[in-house]
Amino acid sequence: MATISDVARAAGVSRQTVSNALNAAHRLAPDTLARVTAAIEALGYRPDPTARSLRTGSRHAVAYPVPPDNPDRPNALMGGFLHCLVDEAGTRGFRILLTRTDRASIAEVIAARQVDGFVLSDVLSADPRLAELDAAGVPYVAFGRLGGSGGWVDVDSAAAMAEVVELLVAQGHRRVGYLGAAEDLPWMRDRRAGFLAAADRLGLTVESRPLPDALRAADRPTAIVAGDDWLGLAGYRMIGEAGLVPGRDVAVTGFNDLPLCDLVSPALTSVRIPVRLIARVLVGRLLDRLAGGPTPEHGALVAGELLVRASTPVRQG
Amino acid sequence: MATISDVARAAGVSRQTVSNALNAAHRLAPDTLARVTAAIEALGYRPDPTARSLRTGSRHAVAYPVPPDNPDRPNALMGGFLHCLVDEAGTRGFRILLTRTDRASIAEVIAARQVDGFVLSDVLSADPRLAELDAAGVPYVAFGRLGGSGGWVDVDSAAAMAEVVELLVAQGHRRVGYLGAAEDLPWMRDRRAGFLAAADRLGLTVESRPLPDALRAADRPTAIVAGDDWLGLAGYRMIGEAGLVPGRDVAVTGFNDLPLCDLVSPALTSVRIPVRLIARVLVGRLLDRLAGGPTPEHGALVAGELLVRASTPVRQG
DNA sequence: TTGAAAGCGGTACCAG
DNA sequence: CTGGTACCGCTTTCAA
Q1: Can you tell me whether residue A142 is helix, strand or coil?
Q2: Contact in structure between B34 and B25 (CB atoms under 8 Å)
Q3: Residue B267 pLDDT
Q4: Is the pLDDT of residue B316 over 70?
Q5: Do A54 and B59 make contact, defined as CB atoms within 8 angstroms?
Q6: Based on the domain organization, do A263 and A288 belong to the same domain?
Q7: A180 lies in the same domain as A126
Q8: What pLDDT score does B306 carry?
Q9: B90 with B129, same domain?
């Protein structure tokens, strides 16, 4: 492996000049630059980022703690998200370092100064990792809304739920049930709130009885809005157990647009999460901040995409 | 941030002694060790892996190129796999660095000496990345079988397919169709070969007509073995289009055990891939190699787990 | 515009 | 068992 000294020797200049050729080419005389560049080419020289990091203190790397995965309900979007993250960071010369999610592991990565910043996801309220990062002064951005700072990006679930409600209203639904779960998760709470707000605004009646009972009542809801796709399928089951047919008798919507939406019968109307865009904005905000830019005032909301499928058919009459 | 010099000064020893306390504690007098340890604690000193790497040349990091993800058919197992990978590597003091999969990116990571080795997946035959790694002498292990070396781990699809065939035979099936696709992918070819071998050994007749036609024939196959779960669902559709009912009229099996197997109706019999075990063996082999151990002669095959569900019911008569 | 010297934070080697 | 010295490969500072 060629070092900077090898190149300097080959080009008949000092090591500094080689360094300048790489980092501040404009300060070199044209012919010197040409000579150095030729030597770099000839020797196949690549500066060692480790040595550079030691000197400059910047690591050109970002950590992403990989959330644990429930094998029975894997996050099918994770692979795509990471691919996009790597891609977006890569085009700006940064790498993604995976870490465990526990506080100790994160503390270690910070203490070892292995990265310049963090990308977080699945952030809970009062997440201990945030305290850790704040205390150490390590910049981060989160996928999912945070309390104060503008260092976050999230799906605009309120807007998405409003679209869902508008769809149902347009299809003639007047009484709708909401199927939620895990409401300790901020994003699940957020979706419910978005639904309720839109339902209120558009004059939809929200079912208050437990859904299994409500579906058997004479004035049963004609649609169920679920907090995610898995819950949507739970809705299918409830509907079936009430002797009704999902889609035909009761419309259903999900959230996340997992691939199973197209597979189940009827295909499930859902909201697609723009993974690529989210990765881009996350990386953009973090790297801008690392570059010394100001922290944006507000978090960024990106629109989900409502995909209407057979589970929300146009109603006859 | 405390440095090794700070600790040395605080403990009244040289930097070298602090270094020894960390890396070769047995060479220190007990009381010196105690003094140094106390100083480390007091100052919260953590050695900087970047500086250490510069000196030793080892990065304590492993690269994993993230395969691109088809949004319409995401790899639902990726999140869990990466989590396991991080976990297994982490317990041995190694980190996972994500990279892009293209040859140029990999060449860059190698040239920049950013990792000690690679974990690969989705390796094609004559994969250009292998040439790159071999040429540079960078150690690697692959999820998925490789030509010569023992640096790989894979699911024993032949054994798994044998289990599938045995199940079908036991259930009274005599004529079975195979539904494959993307046979340029080694693992897909491997599954088909495993099926054919087992069918041959157990005297099963393999359907040779195109499945849509065969299902309409009088001597139609009574079961379909699919190369993966998505193909299993394609099988469901073919069966339905032939006026038959999957599970009841024609048994179906998949492969991978995606979560959708439990969701579809009938639930799809499939083979679960032991992701955690695979990650463990991959990391184990790579790190053993990095530690100077010998390369194993053979690749490792790990058993898949056949999960029998409603799509392969016990046959009446 | 170019170069010499110092140093980033550790570890290897060797002397005592 | 401990410490002095050189050095890993690069960039920053300051003179020439």
Answers
A1: strand
A2: no
A3: 95
A4: no
A5: no
A6: no
A7: no
A8: 98
A9: yes
Say if B112 is an interface residue toward chain A (CB within 8 Å): yes
Query: Do B161 and B254 reside in the same domain of the chain?
Result: yes
Residue A290, pLDDT score: 92
Residue A60 pLDDT grade (very low, low, confident, very high; cuts 50, 70, 90): very high
Which B residues, 197 through 256, put their C-beta within 8 Å of a C-beta on chain A?
Answer: 233
Amino acid at B153: V
Q: How far is A152 from chain B (nearest CA, A)?
A: 22
Q: Is residue A317 part of a domain?
A: no
A166 in the same domain as A263:
yes
In angstroms, the CA B252 to CA B313 distance is 10
Look at chain B and count its residues: 317
Residue range A150-169: mean pLDDT, rounded: 95
Please check whether residues B144 and B284 belong to one and the same domain. yes
Does the pLDDT at position A120 exceed 90?
yes
Q: How large is the average pLDDT for residues A8-26?
A: 90
Residue at token pair 């390590």: A138
Instruction: Identify which of B137, B135, B138 has the alpha carbon closest to the alpha carbon of residue B65.
Output: B138
Domain membership of residue A308 (yes or no) is: no
**A83 touches B: beta carbon within 8 Å:** yes
- Which of A45, A66, A239 is the best residue to mutate to test the B interface, defined by the most B CB atoms within 10 Å of its own CB? A66
Chain B contact present for A57, CB below 8 A: no
C-alpha atoms less than 13 angstroms from C-alpha of A49 in its C-beta half-sphere:
18
Put simply, the answer to whether B259 touches A100 (Cβ < 8 Å) is no
CATH number for the domain that contains residue B142: 3.40.50.2300
A147 and A282 in a single domain? The answer is yes
Model confidence pLDDT, tens digit, residues B142-159: 999 887 776 899 999 999
Q: Which among A1, A98, A259 has the least Cβ separation from residue B86?
A: A98
Q: How confident is the model at residue A26 (pLDDT cuts 50, 70, 90)?
A: confident
What is the Cα–Cα distance from B237 to A193, expressed in whole angstroms? 38
- CB of B87 within 8 Å of a chain A CB? The answer is yes
Provide the shortest C-alpha distance from residue B195 to chain A (in Å): 26
What is the reported pLDDT for A316? 63
Assigned domain for B312 exists? no
Measured between alpha carbons, how far is A190 from A150 in angstroms, rounded to an integer?
18
pLDDT digits (tens, 9 = 90+) for B111-128: 999 999 999 999 987 888
Residue A263 C-alpha, separation from nearest chain B C-alpha, in angstroms: 8
Number of structural domains (chain A) is 3
For range A165-182, the mean pLDDT: 96
The radius of gyration of chain B's CA atoms, rounded to the nearest angstrom, is 26
Residue in B59, B72, B86 nearest the CB of A66: B86
Q: Give the relative orientation of helices B275-290 and B78-91 as an angle to the nearest 10 degrees.
A: 40
Domain range holding B135?
61-154+274-303
Distance CA B87, CA A208 (A): 44
Residue nearest to nucleotide C9 (CA to C1'): B51
Cα B229-B231-B232 angle, rounded to 5 deg: 60
Q: Are residues A247 and A292 located together in one domain of the fold?
A: no
* pLDDT at residue B243, rounded to an integer: 96
Is A162 contained in some domain? yes
| Residues of chain A neighbouring B92 (CB-CB closer than 8 A) | none
Write out which nucleotides of chain D lie closer than 7 A to a protein Cβ: 1-5, 7-13
Classify residue B25 by its DSSP letter: G
pLDDT digits (tens, 9 = 90+) for A80-100: 999 999 999 999 999 999 999
Mean of the per-residue pLDDT values of chain B: 93
